[in-house]
Sequence to fold (187 residues):
Amino acid sequence: MNKQSYMYAGIIVTIIGIWFLVIFTPYVENKKSLNAKITADHIKLSDFEQTIHILPKYLTELKSLKEQRSSLNSKLYTKEEVINLFERLKKTANSQHLEVTEITPPIAELLHLNSMIPDSTNPQFLNIGVRVSGSYIEFAKFIKIIEKESFFRGVNACRILGSKDYNKELDLYIGFKALLGHTGDQS
Fold:
């Protein structure tokens, strides 16, 4: 081959090398970068589609929870409902032939409840003491009934004063914790 052919061949190889370095290599890198972005965008799109499918269920659940919260807020005690609870305890005791001589919530607790702004995130409790007179059996029936009430949260104290004879009148006391806002069916 002649010198001119080598020179053309060299120029062609140089042009191909320059084309490879300047045009083809960046094109391949750009294509890899675009493929990675496309893959990431497909993942984001798939996530978005899942979110769109879940959104109606989420909205209905949110609405249900708001209604439940509203219902629970409406069950929070007002001052009148505390008095209604005391009346309910008195009525229950009377139905068991017990005479209520005293119902005493601690004054400090009542003042604290009065100063609080009720909300559904913090349940309100009140310690209540009920003093009655009657027999052992009637007192046991009374305790059995209030233990089943939705407001009842456990006995704090129980005292029985009087004779060992179960037929005689006794001075009976039960102290318990009540969860305010859960009175159950009021009759």
Q: What stands out?
A: Residues 100 and 132 are 4 Å apart (CA to CA). Residues 3-74 form the longest helix (72 residues). Residues 183-187 have pLDDT under 50 and may be disordered. The beta strands are 99-104, 125-134, 152-161, 170-179.
